[in-house]
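In the previous chapter we treated chains in isolation. Here, by contrast, the input contains six separate entities that must be folded as one system, with a combined length of 498 residues.
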Amino acid sequence: MDTIALVPNNSLITETPEEGRQLAVKLARLIVKLTQPDEEKRKQLREVYGNDAMMLIAIGQTVATEFATIAAANNYWKELGNE
Amino acid sequence: MDTIALVPNNSLITETPEEGRQLAVKLARLIVKLTQPDEEKRKQLREVYGNDAMMLIAIGQTVATEFATIAAANNYWKELGNE
Amino acid sequence: MDTIALVPNNSLITETPEEGRQLAVKLARLIVKLTQPDEEKRKQLREVYGNDAMMLIAIGQTVATEFATIAAANNYWKELGNE
Amino acid sequence: MDTIALVPNNSLITETPEEGRQLAVKLARLIVKLTQPDEEKRKQLREVYGNDAMMLIAIGQTVATEFATIAAANNYWKELGNE
Amino acid sequence: MDTIALVPNNSLITETPEEGRQLAVKLARLIVKLTQPDEEKRKQLREVYGNDAMMLIAIGQTVATEFATIAAANNYWKELGNE
Amino acid sequence: MDTIALVPNNSLITETPEEGRQLAVKLARLIVKLTQPDEEKRKQLREVYGNDAMMLIAIGQTVATEFATIAAANNYWKELGNE
């Protein structure tokens, strides 16, 4: 049941914040896919949460948490002389 | 479907905490936009959450999480001799 | 629409933990204000969440998240020899 | 309205993890008190959340977040040679 | 009312990740116990959340947050040369 | 009641991000198992949350939090010269 890849390219490292953000979205979606492997059902559920204000906010919360990890893994893309 | 930019200017670095906070709000909104690309529907949903106390609180939670990452990326705007 | 100041004094640095906590509360409230600019509606919503146990808990969660960032920015007000 | 003290003793530093945990509980409760200053209403709300499984879990989440900050401020009570 | 011990052994330090995880569960449960001291009521509430999918997920979220603190306090059990 | 192993192999260290992600999923599931030890009931609950959009999002949030800890424990798999 857990045989889908959960981390694309098996790495948290990205070139840019934009790519890091896209990775955060993918990580979040892959957990949904792992939990509900049926594509047809996921499609129906997307219809549900795309039209529900509270769920849209909750998706944002999950992506924000994934992104925090990715951003730290990339040392926030090293633009500051953080030490 | 993922072709909108998710990180404005492709950077987490801002001049000030105020700009960092504005970026946090934008990051949160762009995930909503990615998940519900239809502008008309988003407008309706905004009406919903702008008048729902629990949703307003939840939006605050999401922005707080995004801001935590941005603030760390900027080394909290370095006003203390942290090191 | 985003023209209110989101970070009072444009700084996360405070003299004391108490002031840091007050700042956390303000940051959280300013996101509510940004999302629902109508003062009359916010007043009605305050009445709602002030009398709803779950919402009071959720407000606490949001303030706790904001405070985590502020406390880190202030190096936890430096009372320990952290380094 | 914000005139109650939000951080007892104006410090995050405690002698022990146990005291740190008690402080986390107090910080969480003081935000509830700030948001709903009426003691009688708070008493009624306590009756509500003390008997609601989901609210008890949510209180745990808020305390956990406050405690994370306090524990870091105390450098996790310095029992390990972390560096 | 706050006279129960909130941190077993008054320490976050454990020998192993497994013991750290057990401590995270205990910390979460002790907040429930503090908030609802009546054992009979807690027993009824356990029956509720043990059979409610959303509450089981929420419990997992709380334990995850407690564990994050404990794991950091133990320097993630020092298996890596983290520097 | 707490006699199941909560951390497989009693370690947070994994070879790769992919394995770290799988561990995050396992940690989250083991808390569900600890809280609801009856396999038949868990099976019914899985049916519930696999078809509920909000619960799928909440599962993602919990896994994201577990993963944050695991990723930090592995120093984000050391691909960057972070220091």
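Helices of chain A lie at 17-35, 39-50, 53-73. The mean pLDDT of chain A is 92. Compare these points with the single-chain example from earlier in the chapter.
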